[in-house]
Amino acid sequence: MRLPWENSISFRRLPRFFVTSLQIISLTLYTPHTPQRMSTLRFKVVEEAFKKRPVPVAAPAERPSEYYGKYVFTQEKMRKYLPLRTYQQYVQALDNGTPLDIPTANVIAQGMKQWAVEMGVTHYTHWFQPLTEGTAEKHDAFVEHDGKGGMVEEFSGKLLVQQEPDASSFPNGGIRSTFEARGYTAWDPASPVFIIGDTLMIPTVFISYTGEALDYKAPLKKSLAAVNQAALEVCRYFYDDVQKVSTNLGWEQEYFLVDEGLYAARPDLLLTGRTLLGHDSAKNQQMEDHYFGAIPERVAEFMRDLEIQALELGIPCKTRHNEVAPNQFELAPIYEECNLAVDHNMLLVSLMRKIARKHGFRCLLHEKPFAGINGSGKHNNWSLNTDTGIILHSPGKTPEETLRFLTFVVETLMGVYRHNGLLKASIMSATNSHRLGGHEAPPAIISSFLGKELSELIETVANSSSDELTAMEGKQGVKLDIPQIPEILVDNTDRNRTSPFAFVGNRFEFRALGSSANCSTAMIVLNTAVAEALTDFKTRVDALIAQGTERTKAILSILREDIKVCRPILFDGNGYSEEWQQEAQRRGLDCETSCPLVFDRYLDESSIAMFERMNVMRRNELAARNEIKWEIYYKKVQIESRVLGDLCMNHIIPVATKYQSVLVDNVSKIFSAFPAEKAKQLSAYNVTLIEKINAHTDFIVNAVDEMVNKRKFVNKLSSVRDIAVAYHDEVEPYLHAIRRHIDKLELIVEDGMWTLPKYRELLFIR
Description:
Low-confidence stretches: 1-36, 472-478, 490-494
Number of helices: 27
Helix content: 40-55%
């Protein structure tokens, strides 16, 4: 095919490579039957995906323990590059939570720069976590004018400690105006700086000019301080030498890998992160042969590459394995201090995406990229431990340790019970709402499963009097008549998979968090809720002691009260059952499933009071965050709606009608070749298909038109909350309804005409 303008003199004078490019573009635009070409693209990327081979990864010469933290300015490197006094000042500030003065920061900055330059670094950046579920950075070079016409490399303590990026485009919920775009980043000394490429990455908080948090890190650190103070006060009932209580977090990151070519041929995956259409593969996860199976070779090389780079950045990777769904996998580290663990998770997520592309994959972190199979979560294993090495949620060997254990378990449950709706709000999102309630994801009702031994112990305490549980033993004080908890509980790893907040031996596992979320969202609420519960516990125990009640009896008395109060949160049955939903409602638990309405829990007076009392967030910060949550929600649904409408009108309908035309032509030829009765018999099946296609396409066209009109109406609403609620109630149902008809068409239309890679290709080509 030769296009008319190709004969012009000006065209013939163009360079040959440019002519070829223009011809390719022009043929793409001018060639008819686009659906057929798209189906050709589908089979082309499938063929290429089958041909791909593993990208070999050279293993480092050293053992992992030797290159661990290679690109991190660890305390070991600090001792080498900093004067001893400066290093001691840094450690003291870290232990006490006090800010560093500028002179000390200047010395640290010089040592940090020397190390970085020796590692080939030329730039630095403040690395922060705005309210986008991602990270942000602005790179600056070390170079400055030397005043003599040349350049010098400079990096001061002022630049290390604080910067003023514009960052006006980041979500702020009305806290800061665009014309007052000041936002400040401030170094978090508790999270070591690290190197990515040629850039020194400095973990920071991000706050407004007036001090409001514009990120996840600032309130997380405040919640950690709150739970430290509250837990420390309670610890003093049992231990005299404890000076600090830290929060541990061990996340489990689930994800999917999809061949990059197949990914590129699916506009819905490209633009929304999930498949908005696609019929189940004949085989998906029903054989249960993927979980813990042999890791595919291409994937194994990706994992090896990821693990090496993660270890070099100080991320303590421990576990890698196949997950339940096809092409689904998991990586889990050794637990760490909560703030550092969150930073490492955010860093790992960016590494996963980058390294996946190197190996010809795309990493999918959407909570439900494929309908009908397991979604991806990010289980958060949470616990408290003292600076003396005691895990406060770990059973002890003595009655006194058992009492300590009971105290922290029960008060954790109290925090979870009081704020179960808020905890659900902390893990809810437009993407995670697709995952909750199916295929091993917990339901959208917060409950806790404790296991047989612990449940029995708690009931024993709840149903016994103080006199029954204690007996005086002269000068030895009080002897507790409490059944001893085994040092190692019966393994609960195959415990109730439908429980969102399960006790697992020496910690709680918060399973409801979605794979794309920042762990801080859940940890801020959990830490603060537990801090509040522990604070109230101590206040009431101290009141009884002041009245003359012996310490142990006072503790048991308050625990007995709290067990009875928080009992509704305890559940060991099937969280997916309709009976549980009815029972949970009867117990007064939050059973709301609408994502925008769930967010309301952040603005409950009890939530605001808790955050303000614990000095974590103020009312205006919470209101701002909710504005952002609602806006993100409706924009994601809006994008999905637009993408689906485009796919319907430009892919699905043309393909379906083209196949329908083939069938009509076949029927016509049959009637011209055979007598009417015989032709009617021979063409009956095709006629049925024609009618089915017509019914499905009619529904899709009408539904898309209605969806567009509904969107136009909803977009005119004034309140961002109203828009979010309307998108959930009025627009999102169209996505499900339209999909059902598209998926039926996928089963009808000839495979060779279908333009989009199918589930069997996306899930089983590795």
